[in-house]
Design a protein that fits this description.
Layout (H helix, E strand, L loop, with lengths): L6 H19 L8 H11 L6 H12 L4 H22 L9 E2 L2 E2 L1 H5 L1 H20 L6 H12 L4 H11 L6 H24 L7 H28 L2 H4 L5 H4 L5 H5 L1 H19 L7 H12 L3
Length: about 300
């Protein structure tokens, strides 16, 4: 891909690429069991910003990786993300009815089918990653498992559920979101970079600082948009956090300080990769997009 492409063009091309990869990786809708496969495809295709695959491709470019090698880990991370949304929306969790501008998976297919679809998407992610062309697919699977499991996303969701109606201090809130949201974003960057040349210690350290800051910034902006956005703009239920009395950056800091916190995290991500500005161009642009987005 030409390095001088404008960011929206690059983003559009990568989004179309990952959509095709996901379409080919998912079971055909007419294959048995049809209802399960329909639910899986419904939960994954045709929606979402694809920020995690974009980060994987951008980190791959940083490490001079062949995009064809990045396809599998980029898709695997997105499948894990999609499964988490299906489960998070269930009545036993956040009990939401709108996701990516359409009824949530359990509303469209029933709770049992949605639960199974999420389970199947998680299994598909690890199968895809384990069979990838990466140098060490086993280590990649272990990395993704940590990000998705109790030390990461699942553990963060457990803390989130337990914290409804309570006040968390800023360090506690940051820990929760580094796990719930940040761990998978960090894994996307790490997995993408692992598809290319071996990195120096300075490069690995800079990528890690970047990924941690970008992952936290993503959640801070989500909290702001939950207050400022609409259902139509967000493609999901706005105002949900306040209605469920969840601790957020807005409830803890206030709206304007939360915005300022997101900007500070964007600056931190930028400083980390400043020495590698040429090869890190797309990562830097993605950090800007994460903070400046309106949905």
């Amino acid at each position: 891909m030409h390095p001088d492409l404008a960011f929206p063009v690059w983003t559009g091309e990568r989004q179309r690429r990952i959509e095709d990869v996901l379409d080919r990786a998912l079971p055909r809708a007419d294959a048995l069991p049809v209802r399960l496969h329909e639910a899986m495809r419904y939960a994954v295709l045709g929606g979402g910003k694809r920020i995690r695959p974009l980060l994987a491709y951008a980190a791959g470019e940083f490490a001079d990786a062949d995009p064809a090698v990045v396809d599998a880990p980029a898709a695997a991370v997105e499948l894990i993300h999609a499964y988490s949304l299906v489960h998070d929306d269930l009545p036993c969790m956040d009990n939401d009815t709108l996701r990516r501008g359409k009824p949530t998976c359990h509303v469209a297919f029933g709770e049992a089918e949605a639960l199974l679809a999420g389970d199947a998407l998680q299994s598909l992610a690890f199968g895809l990653l384990g069979g990838s062309a990466m140098r060490s697919s086993g280590a990649a699977c272990a990395m993704l498992a940590t990000a998705a499991g109790a030390p990461g996303m699942a553990g963060g969701q457990a803390i989130d559920l337990a914290s409804s109606g309570t006040a968390l201090a800023l360090p506690e809130l940051q820990t929760m979101h580094r796990m719930k949201t940040g761990a998978l974003i960090r894994a996307a960057v790490q997995l993408g970079a692992a598809c290319g040349r071996p990195l120096t210690e300075d490069e690995r350290s800079a990528l890690d600082v970047y990924a941690r800051a970008a992952g936290l910034a993503f959640q801070v902006v989500d909290d702001v948009l939950d207050v400022e956005g609409t259902d139509a703009a967000l493609g999901k239920t706005a105002g949900k956090d306040a209605a469920q009395q969840k601790p957020t950056y807005v409830s803890l800091l206030g709206l304007e300080p939360a915005r300022q916190h997101a900007e500070a995290l964007r600056a931190e991500a930028g400083r980390a990769l400043a020495p590698f500005r040429g090869s890190a161009r797309r990562l830097l642009e993605l950090a800007d997009w994460i903070v400046q987005r309106n949905h």
